[in-house]
Amino acid sequence: MDYSSNSRWALPVILVCFFIVLLSNNVVFASHKVFIHLQSQNAVNVQTVHRTGYHFQPEKHWINDPNAPMYFNGVYHLFYQYNPNGSVWGNIVWAHSVSKDLINWINLEPAIYPSKPFDQFGTWSGSATILPGNKPVILYTGIVDANQTQVQNYAIPANVSDPYLREWIKPDNNPLIVADDSINKTKFRDPTTAWMGKDGHWRIVMGSLRKHSRGLAIMYRSKDFMKWVKAKHPLHSTNGTGNWECPDFFPVALKGTNGIDQYGEEYKYVLKNSMDLTRFEYYTLGKYDTKKDRYVPDVGSIDSWKGLRFDYGNFYASKTFYDTSKNRRVIWGWSNESDIFPEDDNAKGWAGIQLIPRKVWLDPSGKQLIQWPVEELETLRTQKVQLSNKKLNNGEKVEVTGITPAQADVEVTFSFASLDKAESFDSSWTDMYAQDVCGLKGADVQGGLGPFGLATLATENLEENTPVFFRVFKAQQNYKVLLCSDAKRSTLKFNETMYKVSFAGFVDVDLADKKLSLRSLIDNSVIESFGAGGKTCITSRVYPTLAINEKAHLFAFNNGTEPITIETLDAWSMGKAKIQY
Q1: What is the pLDDT at residue 156?
Q2: Cβ atoms 543, 351 nearer than 8 A
Q3: 3-state secondary structure 326-385
Q4: For labelling alongside 483, which of 83, 351, 510, 532 has CA 20 to 30 A away?
Q5: DSSP states of 120-169 as a string?
Q6: Three-class DSSP category at 23
Q7: What per-residue confidence (pLDDT) applies to 104?
Q8: Contact 108, 164 (CB under 8 A)
Q9: Looking at residue 83, what is its pLDDT?
Q10: Any idea which residues carry the catalytic annotation?
Q11: 433 vs 429, 437, 440, CA distance in Å?
């Protein structure tokens, strides 16, 4: 993935730079010079405030995309884009860590770094494939010149018997794939995990762009994994989305929660693309015609920015892999920082985290995916507290005590006696994003059925807090459930230096039992929330000034006129993941 200019850094930086341009082009030029300077400024003092306790992050400096996750010979491997020399994007190498449980990690030396003509200007994202004979291979994007011409390379372990696969070789017959004249050579990156068709040929997909607005999943085929030929047509393309990067294409079983790694027509398929224009991802569900090598989204699966997302918050460049040890599909996602200026990341000495890996499977409706934190995370649960049958009237809240609120795992089920007080869903909201509705109807705006939920990383009097909450609306023919993670009051820091946004998504859930469930993983500067058993997921990055460490509080609240009952609430203090640097 490309972060080589300020305009590609992240949505908050895009917005800030836009306004700076309006003020002065000279300021933008000065800012870019500062950015370049910071790329190789080694962190001397690493600030521990806001560092996570059980999420993956290196000891210091910048990280972004998770790359080539795989399970091989009893060991989980995670590669990721990393700047070994500074806390902003630049000098990117493939860092490498290994684990036995996806939670505790050992950091190794970088596996891939710029060193040869086919990647001397950059080693960008890619994927891993296990070839017949149990031979792992990595495909990655190399940058060959200052114009950011992109090619596809491969790397193999120097010693496949090494349990940690510490050293990787980039053979001299690279690059394997060079874009032809029909392809935008600067928008041609991030190869997927390969799959083999019934014809015995391997297939991979790269993200690309045509004519400024059409996103492409360009397919290549190979008999031997060395000589690749571009298919006559892309696997799929969509107009109006902008460039596609970090594509992912994989099958899901029609029933059950197990993962699969077979590419037959009897399965449902997922095509995910990361939109570098919006800094969000979306996915569709559909069918894969194995004879024509065409992917066709299901009717009703929205094929645009307003489509389904793995996560409606700060979550990007995701990558899945099939975990043979537990027969599951696992997804990794990266979460960048929400402080706006690169100088802030440089000052604290680190930037970016990998989110908790999630198991992913098809919802029984067949209309969306379900995600849930991998079960191994529960080994970090320590002190537990419980609440049950606690009624909350309008304006009431109850504090969850006895745990560490800044580093916790909370599961709660809310119930209500009636849907009658659900607010009317304004027809003008139909074309709005859910987060726009959340911006209008925040946690402090009294409603009928909701808002109710959790106030996380909160001060005692809620001067600072990040509420994660539901609000139920009555539409013409059904009910609409909104899940919000609202960072507007997450910190007392100036708005000019923080990106404090209301992230939100609608939850497709049957309210016949008049219950809604929520799980939130709280970890100092990140809140990952899973609504209705993982139907809708939202990640927020926040930086409290008061609600930190032992001064943080956790509340359950109701600001709707319909009384809410906490049927069950289970909360755990979370221990620290063991990460060996």
Answers
A1: 98
A2: no
A3: CCEEEEEEEECCCECCHHHHHHHCEECEECCCEEEEECCCCCCEEEEECHHHHHHEEEEE
A4: 351
A5: TTEEEEEEEEEETTTEEEEEEEEE-STT--EEEEEEEES-TTSTT---EE
A6: helix
A7: 98
A8: yes
A9: 98
A10: 65
A11: 8, 7, 11
| Burial readout 404-426 (b: 16 or more C-beta within 10 A, e: otherwise) | bbbbbbbebbbbbeeeebbbebe
Tens-digit pLDDT profile for residues 381-431: 999 999 999 999 999 999 999 999 999 999 999 999 999 999 999 988 877
In this structure, the number of other CB atoms found within 10 A of the CB of residue 185 comes to 17
What confidence score (pLDDT) does residue 2 get? 67
Show the CA angle centred on residue 152, arms to residues 73 and 168, nearest 5°.
Answer: 35
**Which residues are paired to 454 by β-bridges?**
468, 556
Q: How many CB atoms lie within 10 A of CB 182?
A: 8
201 vs 175: CA distance, rounded Å: 19
pTM value > 0.90: yes
Got the DSSP string for 72-104? ETTEEEEEEEE-TT-SSS-S-EEEEEEESSSSS
DSSP H helices in 179-306: none
The encoded tokens of residue 451 equal 């808002």
What is the reported pLDDT for 340?
77
- In this prediction, residue 3 carries a pLDDT of 62
Classify strands 61-72 and 350-351 as parallel, antiparallel or unpaired.
Answer: parallel
Q: Both tokens of residue 21?
A: 């341009």
Residue ranges of domains in the chain, CATH in brackets: 62-373 (2.115.10.20), 381-574 (2.60.120.560)
Q: Which regions of the chain are under pLDDT 50?
A: 5-31
Query: Two tokens at 105?
Result: 């990690």
What is the Cα–Cα distance from 456 to 403, expressed in whole angstroms? 13
